[in-house]
Design brief:
Chain lengths: 511, 330
Amino acid sequence: MADPLLVMRDINKRFQGVQALSAASLEVDPGEIMALVGQNGAGKSTMIKVLTGAYRRDSGSILFAGRPIDFASPQAAQRGGVSTIYQEINLVPFRSVAENVFLGREHRRYGLLDWGRMNAEAAELLRRFAVEIDVRRPLLEFSTAIQQMVAIARAVSFKAQLVIMDEPTSSLDEREVAVLFDVMRRLRAEGVAVIFVGHRLDELYRVCDRVTVMRDGRTVMVNRMADIGKLNLIAAMLGRDLETVRAHSTGFSAAHAAAGDVVLSAEGLQIGRKVRDARVEVRERQIVGLAGLLGSGRTEVARAIFGADPPDAGTIEMNGRPVSPQEPAEAIALGVGYCSEDRKADGIVPDMSVRENMTLGILPRLTSMGIVDEARQREIVDKFMKRLAIKASSAEQKIRELSGGNQQKVLLARWLCTDPKLLILDEPTRGIDVGAKAEIQALIRELADQGLGVLMISSELEEITEGADRVFVLSDGRTVADLSHAEASAGAIIAAMAHGGAEAPAEAGHG
Amino acid sequence: MVDAPTIDRKGISLDVAAFFRRYVALTALIALLAFNFAVTPHFASWQTLNVNLTQVATIVIVSVGMTLVIATGGIDLSVGSLMAISGALAPMIFLSSFGLSYPALGDALAFVVPVGVAGLFGLFNGWFITRFQVQPIVGTLVMFIAGRGIGQVLTNGNLQAFKNPTFQFIGLGRIFGVPCQVVIMLALVGAAAWTLRSTLFGRQILSVGGNERAARLSGVPVAAVKRWVYAISGLCAGIAGLVVVSINSSSDANLVGLGMELDAIAAVAVGGTPFTGGQATVVGTLIGALLIQLVRYTLLANGVPDAAALVVKGAIIAGAVWSQQRSRSA
């Protein structure tokens, strides 16, 4: 076999004390489609950004086409033969297709733009990918798939030897995906290598030659796609040997009391393209785990129940009564709380104090005649700062100055002080140091034992297997398994994720 | 010292950045006062104080509403046009045959109706922005353009001259020797500062400006909060419109409130309220407006032409923004 086109070895990268990559590696052969997979935070995008020069690596070597390289910026990488096509297509929507293809290195004649030549070349370029469009029309008139083709054509016109596609299929429909895959195969036939970052395993099996799996900043597996079953692939991503799950590595303990009445019951939820038929049920004194790979629709289900993005179809019952919250405020009035997975974007109000942040949800209840009762507010804040052991210089410290774990505790307290019946936690321990993590997990258990119903989304298998009294597994927008605590072994959950999708061509990789 | 901080400052942690921002405008104001006492003839007199406060009052009244809008991360370009509408409506009411036959009722309605109408137009701004998710600068641009047109259509483009002491009390009268509009100005500043600090509505304004998505997920009625701040901005503009026509004893929809949106925005900027939302100081806005006014007065009183004063005004805004940036990165 020819020498590899790209060799990244022993790549290390730290962000403010967090090791994002540790001795990670990635090799791609010429004319090969390489899948790059892993959970959120596994280091995929950091790896890509190190390669394209968006980040500087702390150490490690990169060889490209046999030469050591160190791109200063994504633009430099593009000139050097490495083009990246991002999730959100970053082209100029109001300019013509041809203009977008040649953006930044337009053909000129006598100091003027040579439109004739650019249009002809752009049309020719797109024709190679079986795309016949009027290249003089503005880009925004075309579908996402076509726009993506334009981005790819642009990449190829830079004489790219390696094209990186970051979740290129996330906004495409079935037919468009097929067209995109044809283009990828065509690129491969011309000797261009592709790195395909994706989550939908079935798609990876359809088009990729090999797969590189990353986890916790390391490269944990490289394999030929045809030689690895879906089950083993998921196990590698989640980091579990199918048989052995480390016993008791979380702050959870098993349920003490029997679950009570049903608090939440949602059936047949349909939300946009991502969720097609989801079902969950949560009882008092119960932690229900919602498991699924990235993109399986977990967060969408949570947001639908909370009224943040109401479902297109399906029923939601709270305490036996059908409800349909259209706004979070309505769900909150029903006794629901929701900690989102993105603390920074959806959780904290950065410039406000711990006190203000904690009482944001309960503030209407601390108000009489429109005036905030500051004494009661302070009382509640003091109580929860003590109870959750929140470390802050005072209740008046700005929340953005706190550590991730303490921010999360404040956000938990925001809901706890509203005395909810159902608490939805989306990745409650993501990006939190180990000590605070166990503390938060123990707290969740304690709250459930006191009667709270908890719906917990987590990508960490231990959190689900040890913490949850009941587990629903989502795959491709459908609830594919409903397991009790005893049944919910790592193996059972992974198996459900792998084989759950009824329409998924099972184990296509073996074909 | 001053107001009403954005975020509570009763605790141990002192908001250094906000303190510094306020400190800059206030220091400049004090220095300028000292300069005037020393240099400008006849500066230390009640008359000078009254002239300055009277001139600045309308800007401050409008700026109070503007501060609340900016606190949510928005902006309101329509205030000048809403002043024109309110200023056009008032004389139409007390000069109408109804207003002339029932003067007491006519004068009362001449206060209430124009301000209410301006408030409704403000509410429309808020509805338009939240319903169609348009950017505030574009959303209020609609009323900025259409509003002045409405004012001119109402009056057929004519100048309405009048003499109505009862109505004109708002611009010419005095309460215990203090000009009426100055009293209104101080009352509005106090009310808005208190609202931001101590009421649910105030805290919701700041949370919407600080992180709209988080606010919504915490149950804050984001759209309603925005509609209300634009309505309040409209009400403030309506009051300011009445003050201006009272002072002039005439109403010209072409001129009332012309350029006021920019003066108000300038006062907010110099006062130290960041345009990103989530933080606001109404007293800072008052200081900012006073500073701009006093600079202009100082230059005029010392024989510098008005045109040159505009350049200095621009420089003050640039300086204020610069000091904000610096204090934030510090």
